[in-house]
Specification:
alpha/beta; Aspartate Aminotransferase, domain 1; Aspartate Aminotransferase, domain 2; 2 domains; 7-stranded mixed sheet; 4-stranded antiparallel sheet; 17 strands; 38% helix; globular; disordered N terminus; binds pyridoxal-5'-phosphate
C-alpha cells in the first residue's frame, strides 16, 4: 500500500505507484523556498513545473476553483494606479449594490473590503479571542467547530489561538448538520465555521438551517459563514436571505471576489458583520489595503449585470460537458461526484485518485488531490474554457493517456 500526498520535491514512481511528501514551495529571488508548515494550495504552477520539468506556460491549471471566464480588465484610468487607494465611495456603493441589494433597513450588516477573504480567515480567530477576553460573561467562548474537510486555512488559524477545535464531518449535509447540533447541545458556547458551499465537498446549508444553528448557539458564540463559492447561486447567500434582514450580532459572512470574477490575483474580499467586529478588523488593516486597480475593476464588475448573467450561463454550460469523457473513464471506481460549477469533485479509491493526479500532471495538467477518509480521496477538477482549442486538445490527449493507465492498473490489481 502506498501513501500519497501531492506537491512534493520527493516523488518516486514505479508502475504508476508514486510516493510523494507534502511541502509548499515558492520561488524567492530565484531560489526555491520550502516551507514545511505552510498548507498546500491549488494554482502553484511554479512548483509543478519544477517537479515535472514542464515549462510554466505549458500547464493547464485545473487545481483551483477560479473561473476561467475572467472579468475584462482593460482601459483602467491611470488615476487608479497613481493615487493612494483610499476606499472609493463609488466602489463601496457598487459593492453594496451587488452584495446587499435590499440595503434599506438600519439592521443590515456593516461591510468591510479586504485584500482577499484570506485576511479575515487569518485575523478573525484573534479578534474573537480578544472579544472573549474583555467579555464580562462568566464563560468566554473557548471552542470552535470547523469542517473536517474544506479550505484548511480556517483550521490553521484557529489552531494558533487558544481554543479547542472540534472537526465536524462535512461530506454530507444531514450528517454535518446533525453533528453540529449535537455538539451545540453539549455546549452552545462554541463558535462555528461553515464553508458554504464547502470546497471541495459541495455541502451547502440553507439559510433556514444556518438560522437554526445560530438559534442553538450561545449569545457570545459567532457563526462564521465562508461564502467564497456562492456567487453562482446568489439566492443561497445569507446576505440576500429574508431571515437575516435583521442581522444577528454574532453572524459573520465572508465573500471572495476572485473566484466568480476570475480575478484572484487582484486580492479582494469582503466581510459582513456587526459594526463592532468590522471596527476591530478595520483597525488592524492598513488604510490602503485595496489597491486602486482592484477597486476600479470591481466597481465595474459589480454593476455589470449582463456580464454576471452571461458568465453564470457560460460556467453552467461549460461545467456540464467538459468532464463527460473523464467521468466515463473513472465511472466504475467513482463513489460520488459533486459539481459546483467552478469545480467538480470525484470521490475515488486513493490508489486510483493518485494515478489520475500523476498521469494528468505528467501531461501538464494540474488538479487537486485531497484525502477524504480511509483509503478514499477526492480529485477536484477546476473549469477551463472548452472553446480554447489548444486547451481542449491538451485535455483530450491527457484523458486518452489516463484511460490507458487506468486499464493497465485494473489489469494489475
Ligand atoms: C473556501 C475558501 N474560502 C476563502 C478562500 C480565500 O480566498 P480569497 O482570499 O482569494 O478571497 C479560498 C481560497 O481558495 C477558499 O477556497
Amino acid at each position: 500500500m502506498v501513501f500519497f500526498i501531492t506537491g512534493s520535491p520527493n516523488i518516486f514512481v514505479t508502475n504508476w505507484k508514486i510516493l510523494v511528501r507534502e511541502t509548499t514551495k515558492t520561488k524567492l529571488n530565484g531560489d526555491w523556498h520550502i516551507d514545511e508548515n505552510a498548507l498546500v494550495h491549488g494554482g502553484n504552477i511554479q512548483s509543478a513545473s519544477q517537479d515535472w520539468g514542464i515549462p510554466e506556460d505549458q500547464w493547464l491549471d485545473l487545481s483551483t476553483g477560479i473561473s476561467p471566464f475572467s472579468y475584462p480588465v482593460e482601459d483602467l484610468p491611470s488615476s487608479a494606479f497613481q493615487r493612494l487607494p483610499y476606499l472609493n465611495q463609488a466602489f463601496l456603493a457598487a459593492a453594496k449594490q451587488y452584495y446587499l441589494p435590499f440595503d434599506s433597513c438600519t439592521d443590515n450588516p456593516a461591510m468591510l473590503p479586504i485584500a482577499g477573504s484570506q485576511i479575515a480567515i487569518q485575523t478573525l480567530p484573534k479578534i474573537l479571542r480578544d472579544i472573549g477576553k474583555d467579555s464580562s460573561t462568566e464563560s468566554p467562548v473557548r471552542s470552535v467547530l470547523i469542517p473536517s474537510i474544506g479550505y484548511q486555512e480556517h483550521q490553521k488559524h484557529w489552531q494558533a489561538s487558544p481554543v479547542d477545535i472540534t472537526l465536524y464531518p462535512a461530506m454530507d449535509i444531514q450528517v454535518s448538520n446533525d453533528a453540529i447540533h449535537s455538539e451545540l447541545q453539549k455546549n452552545p458556547n462554541q463558535h462555528v465555521v461553515v464553508i458554504n458551499p464547502n470546497n471541495p465537498s459541495g455541502v451547502l446549508f440553507t439559510p433556514d438551517a444556518l438560522s437554526e444553528m445560530l438559534f442553538a448557539m450561545g449569545p457570545d458564540a459567532y457563526l462564521i459563514v465562508d461564502e467564497a463559492f456562492i456567487d453562482l447561486t446568489p439566492e443561497s447567500s445569507l446576505l440576500l436571505s429574508a431571515q437575516f434582514r435583521s442581522w444577528p450580532k454574532n453572524l459573520i459572512v465572508l465573500r471572495s471576489f476572485g473566484k466568480f470574477y476570475g480575478l484572484a490575483g487582484i486580492r479582494l474580499g469582503f466581510v459582513f458583520a456587526h459594526s463592532s467586529i468590522i471596527r476591530r478588523l478595520s483597525s488592524i488593516i492598513d488604510p490602503w489595503s485595496i489597491n486602486g486597480p482592484a477597486q476600479a475593476i470591481a466597481q465595474r464588475a459589480f454593476l455589470d449585470l449582463s456580464w454576471q448573467v452571461k458568465t453564470r450561463e457560460k460556467i453552467a454550460h461549460a461545467s456540464s460537458h467538459y468532464l463527460d469523457n473523464f467521468q466515463d473513464i473513472v465511472r466504475i471506481t467513482t463513489r460520488k461526484i459533486v459539481n459546483n460549477g467552478l469545480f467538480t469533485s470525484f470521490w475515488l479509491p486513493s490508489e486510483i485518485a493518485n494515478i489520475i493526479d500523476q498521469v494528468l500532471k505528467s501531461c501538464g495538467i494540474l488538479v487537486r488531490l485531497l484525502p477524504a477518509g480511509h483509503c478514499e480521496s477526492i480529485i477536484r477538477i477546476g473549469l477551463f474554457d472548452v472553446t480554447c482549442v489548444e486547451q481542449f486538445e491538451k485535455f483530450s490527449i491527457a484523458l486518452a493517456r489516463l484511460k490507458k493507465a487506468i486499464i493497465h492498473e485494473s489489469a494489475t490489481i
